[in-house]
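User: Small ask, check this?
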Amino acid sequence: MDKLVIHGGNPLNGSVKISGAKNAVLPIMAATIIAPGEYRIHNVPELRDTLTMKRLLEMVGAEVHYENSTMQIDTSKCDTPTAPYDLVKTMRASFYVLGPFLSRFNYAEVSLPGGCAWGPRPVNYHLQAMEALGAEVDLSDGMIIAKGDLKGALIDFERSSVGATGNVLMAAVTAHGKTVIKNAAREPEIGALCIFLKKMGAEIIGVGTDEITIQGKQELKADVDYTVIPDRIEAGTFLIAGAITNGDITVENIEPDHLIIVSKCLNYAGFKLDFKQNAIRIQSSGNSIQPVDITTAIYPGFPTDLQAQWMALMTKAKGQSTITEEIYTDRFTHIAELSRFGAHIRLINNQAIIKGMEILKGAPVMSTDIRASASLILAALSSEGTSSITRVYHIDRGYDKIEEKLTTLCARIKRVKD
């Protein structure tokens, strides 16, 4: 297995280009199943998760070619609406094929999902919504079997869910009649999926709001050319990397409007931010990092996918801060590993209390999930001495060539065989 070796203490400097959004491209890849034909998707990040979804599409019968960040997908010969455990266990986003399978075949066999080791992320919202659309849903030997000719319905989520909103969208676009999703997810990645589906001919209104209306159409078309939006989580991670190392970096190829709450929090922490059309420059003010309390929330609130990275930054703040996790209340596996650097963090229920330290010391640590991995890299970059991070396959699921990008910013980081 690979590990990352990081020599900390260097301020990061320079510019870095952000890749396409993992959480946008995965449902879009799944959506190509809905209408048989050819698709061209640009700005596709090279991640373990995108390659896993590629393999899943190929198992279903699609032909997929991926080169130079462009993925060409031909779903004309898809004829096997099954997502087996061996793939779904490695990536929860594989569950996105449920809606497309039902949309095209009126049938789906999808394994119960796996993925990151933290936290319960139940699929009951997905299944209840499919039943509301008229599908018969059964569970047999760990496989979800759904079938039926779908009809439009009112879907009122008790709690906003990105995954369930995406699956309902993809199922409803070919259902008979009108579907209304209330308390729909407002994340930019759902907006991106809606735009892709509209390019296929879907009738969708309310994009970007918490109420989305879909008028089902019997057939959609392929021959879609689409460019994936920038990854706001990767962008936020690099902004925090610039902050925690007291550096001066410019994060390019982004949508600054997707990072409003993160940018405000970085301002409160004492950093200077300069906004351009598709870039943000972050600079240290030369003063101590100020403690900033955050609570994760659905978009446009503070993203749970940046909670671990923010915690790393707060370990270097001058004073005490709190992080309250309201999305996945047990998403705190990174605390034990951050403590190995000398961080002082207490956990009470779903709230972490961080006492900032002037100095962290390099340490051997272990990744536990995608975003926890990023927090360990940030802590290592800001620590005195050398750190090693094992189980980096987690980071490879969500960050495209992260060590290469950090090296261009003057970080001393290498990938080596463990």
Notes: Residues 151 and 176 are 4 Å apart (CA to CA). The radius of gyration is 21 Å. The first helix runs from residue 22 to 31.
